[in-house]
Design a protein that fits this description.
By secondary structure, the chain is an alpha+beta fold. It has 4 helices and 10 strands. Strands 1, 2, 3, 4, 5, 6, 7, 8, 9 and 10 form a 10-stranded mixed sheet that branches. Strand 4 and strand 5 form a beta hairpin. Helix 1 packs across helix 3. Keywords: Signal.
Length: 232
C-alpha cells in the first residue's frame, strides 16, 4: 500500500508542477504574437498552430490540413450537425436550433471539460459562402452567440467559438482545409487546462474528420445536401 501511495503522491506532485510551469510559460510568452507550430503530423497531413493575441486572454489557433476526400464530402460532414458527437473532440448534444436559409443556421452543442471543471455549452451562428467559379472554395464562418438562448446551469456558456473555415478542392479526390479561430470557454479555468484543450482538440477533431469523410453517406450520398455546397 505504501509504495502505491508514494507513487500517487509523486504523480500528483509532477502534475501540479507541470501545470505551474505551463502557467509560467504563458506569462513568459506574453509578448509573442507569432504563430507557433504545435503539431505536424506528416503522415496525416495535419499542421496545427497557436499564438497569443494582444488584448485577449486565450490563444488563437490555426489548422492547415489535406483531406483525402472531395469537397462535397467534407462539406457534408460539417453540415451534419446532429452527428458532431461522433467526431468532434469531447462534444455532446449537438442540434440545429434554427435554419435561416440553405446558407445560414444556428446550432447548439456541449463541450466536455477537464476533470474538476464544469462542462461548457455554446450557440453558434453559421454562414456559408458556397463554391463558385468566382469563389473557388467554400467559406464556413462560425461565431458564438452567447445570449441566443438562456444559460443552462451547471453548464458554463462559452463566450467565443469563432472561426472561419476555407475548404478548397485540390482535385476530385482531395481537399485543402484552412482555418483560424479563437475560443473563450467562459467562466473560470486555469491556463494549463485551457492550453491543454486548445492544443489537443483541433488535432484530434481533424483525425475524426478524416475518418468520417470515408463513410458512404458522405462519400457517395443519396440525398441532397442540407446546406449549399455549390452556388446556383
Amino acid at each position: 500500500m505504501l509504495p502505491k501511495l508514494l507513487c500517487a503522491g509523486l504523480l500528483l506532485a509532477m502534475t501540479t508542477i507541470g501545470h505551474a510551469e505551463n502557467d509560467i510559460d504563458d506569462l513568459r510568452d506574453g509578448e509573442s504574437t507569432d504563430w507557433s507550430l504545435i503539431k505536424h503530423d506528416i503522415k496525416r497531413n495535419i499542421k496545427a498552430y497557436d499564438k497569443k493575441e494582444y488584448g485577449k486572454r486565450m490563444r488563437s489557433f490555426k489548422l492547415d490540413v489535406i483531406i483525402d476526400a472531395p469537397l462535397e464530402s467534407v462539406a457534408r460532414v460539417y453540415y451534419d450537425i446532429d452527428n458532431y458527437h461522433k467526431w468532434f473532440w469531447q462534444v455532446s448534444n449537438p442540434k440545429i436550433l434554427r435554419k435561416v436559409s440553405d446558407t445560414e443556421f444556428y446550432y447548439y452543442l456541449e463541450h466536455g471539460a477537464p476533470i474538476g471543471l464544469p462542462n461548457r455549452d455554446v450557440i453558434i451562428h453559421a454562414q456559408i459562402t458556397p463554391y463558385s467559379a468566382s469563389h473557388p472554395y467554400i467559406e464556413f464562418r462560425l461565431k458564438a452567440i452567447p445570449e441566443f438562448i438562456p444559460a443552462k446551469p451547471p453548464l458554463v456558456r462559452m463566450l467565443a467559438e469563432d472561426m472561419v473555415w476555407k475548404w478548397t478542392p485540390i482535385d476530385k479526390k482531395s481537399t485543402h482545409l484552412e482555418t483560424e479561430g479563437y475560443i473563450d470557454p467562459g467562466g473560470l479555468a486555469p491556463s494549463w487546462a485551457i492550453t491543454a484543450v486548445q492544443r489537443q482538440a483541433p488535432y484530434y477533431t481533424m483525425l475524426g474528420l478524416q475518418r468520417m469523410v470515408k463513410l458512404p453517406q458522405y462519400l457517395t450520398p443519396s440525398t441532397p445536401s442540407p446546406f449549399k455546397v455549390y452556388a446556383d
